Amino acid sequence: MDKIQNYIDGQLTDPLSGHYLENYNPAEGVVYGLIPDSDEKDVQRAVKAATKAFPVWSAMSVAERSDVLLKVADLIDRDSDLLALAESVDNGKPLSLAKSVDIPRASSNMRFFATAILHFSSESHLTDNKAINYTTRTPVGVAGCISPWNLPLYLFTWKIAPALAAGNTVVAKPSEVTPMTAYLFSKICIEAGLPSGVLNIVHGLGPKVGQAIVEHPDIPLISFTGGTATGKSIAATAAPMFKKLSLELGGKNPNIIFGDCDLKNTVDESIRASFSNQGQICLCGSRIFVQRSIYDQFLKLFLERVKALKVGDPLEAGSDIGAVVSQAHMDKVLAYIELAKKEGGEILCGGAQVKLPGRCENGYFIAPAVITGLDYNCRVNQEEIFGPVVSVMPFDSEEEVIGYANSTAYGLSATIFTENLKRAHRVSHQLKSGIVWVNCWLLRDLRTPFGGMKQSGVGREGGEEALRFFTEAKNICISLK
Ligand code: TXE
């Protein structure tokens, strides 16, 4: 039974309470490890270590900080197979996906911010001939970073890298559902020579450990990725404490397909956007709107491809769809399938638990589901399901589909498939989402602002947006008289 440890003040350490939580392997539906059931006392130890480490780390040259973070990236690359296997076992995702997406992106996150910080500049303003203003952007202090279970190391490093590169120290809490790669990451940090206390990882439950981080008076900024409901709870605690807050929350993203699209590319990209990571990506396109002129043609081609997706043992090479992350999450997704039937939907394929033979017979597997016949404003089309489930609906006009697309409380991302460039610009500008992909999905440039509007979050991650979030700006005005 793997028993993992917290990483506090440069040491791997047990929770002060001595209590542990069970960690499940979703593909087998069994407990395979134990994680610290930490509490506010462990968080206090971590904050003390991070506070103590801050003066030296923040005063270090950016080149020295960059070198340590690049070493971490090198060690992630060296251990990529081990990390990918750990991620697949912990999350249930296909090993092939962990190898091709999760772990390479974790390394890229570290490498991107380790180099971006070398070029991070601020500005100056000459006020006529009266004064010169210059802006400093300096590290804030101890950053609280809380991350989710869907892309564990990918999203964990997406916060850690800019926070550390900018000179902050960190108290982090990965999801208790998928703690393993963050634990392996802490060992990599020790080997890379990251100074003690610069990064501290406290494992445990959200309402206990996460809440203790959010409410700690010596943590002035919080970066969170997770559910919208949790984001609301975090904001309610952090806002009255005037903490700086970055919230990357849920999505219910429209995939808008016009009659003039390149149909093969559209089907290929729509399969990825619908079912990658078992549909457990906040950017997945779970609402598919198809212009009526090609609705039947698209649906036929799309269904053929969905039915050909292999739900299988995540460790087997040919598996396209692995296990969803937990029993509770599987129950939530299956409940939405039942709701879809009640709301008048037709389940054209999938939507039931899949019983695999052998080691995975008790795993959390769901056959990818395609639903038609639902109104754009029913609950299944308004609420985030976060599983291998998509709803396909026809539309006629641009104005009609833009209304459908913008009709939810979310505003994270959107995809558009059309060969008409003017239409691509026109529709993109009217969509209420922070990210729009045209004729592609999840094509990522880490320099771009990442995040959503409405209930999809507050603030942006990525590139300079992240470095500005993790620094405090000060304007100094010098008279020229
Ligand atoms: O997220 P939670 P969960 C959506 C998706 C999913 C839903 C819930 O719809 O079904 O959110 O998923 C910590 N104070 N997304 O349960 O609860 C928790 O321990 C401080 C979209 O995983 O938000 C974990 O580390 N922290 C999302 C992290 O918050 C708290 C990706 C996320 O957990 C806390 C994941 C509290 N009170 C889920 N409660 C995306 N945008 O990608 C929990 N946590």
Description of the molecule:
With 481 residues, the chain is α/β, with parallel strands linked by helices. The chain has two domains: 2-249 and 456-478, Aldehyde Dehydrogenase, Chain A, domain 1 (3-Layer(aba) Sandwich), CATH 3.40.605.10; 254-445, Aldehyde Dehydrogenase, Chain A, domain 2, CATH 3.40.309. Helix content is 40%, strand content 22%. The protein has helices spanning 40-59, 62-78, 80-91, 95-116, 152-165, 180-192, 206-215, 228-238, 263-275, 295-308, 327-342, 379-382, 398-405, 421-430, 463-469, and strands at residues 2-3, 6-8, 11-13, 20-25, 30-36, 124-127, 131-139, 142-146, 169-173, 199-201, 221-225, 244-248, 254-257, 287-291, 346-349, 369-372, 389-395, 410-411, 413-417, 435-438, 453-454, 457-458, 471-479. Helix 2 runs antiparallel to helix 4 and helix 2 packs across helix 6 (180-192). The N and C termini lie far apart (72 Å). The mean pLDDT is 98. Bound molecules: ligand TXE. Residues 146-150, 173, 175-176, 206-207, 210-211, 214, 225-227, 230, 233-234, 248-250, 282, 384, 386 line the site of ligand TXE.
Provide a short characterization of the protein structure.
The chain is an alpha/beta fold.
How do the strands and helices of this protein lay out in sequence?
Elements (H helix, E strand, L loop, with lengths): L1 E2 L2 E3 L2 E3 L6 E6 L4 E7 L3 H20 L2 H17 L1 H12 L3 H22 L7 E4 L3 E9 L2 E5 L5 H14 L3 E5 L6 H13 L6 E3 L4 H10 L5 E5 L2 H11 L5 E5 L5 E4 L5 H13 L11 E5 L3 H14 L18 H16 L3 E4 L19 E4 L6 H4 L6 E7 L2 H8 L4 E2 L1 E5 L3 H10 L4 E4 L14 E2 L2 E2 L4 H7 L1 E9 L2
Parallel strand pairs: 1-5, 8-9, 8-11, 9-10, 11-12, 13-14, 13-19, 14-17, 16-17, 19-20
Antiparallel strand pairs: 2-3, 4-5, 6-7, 7-23, 12-22, 15-16, 18-21
Bound molecules: ligand TXE.
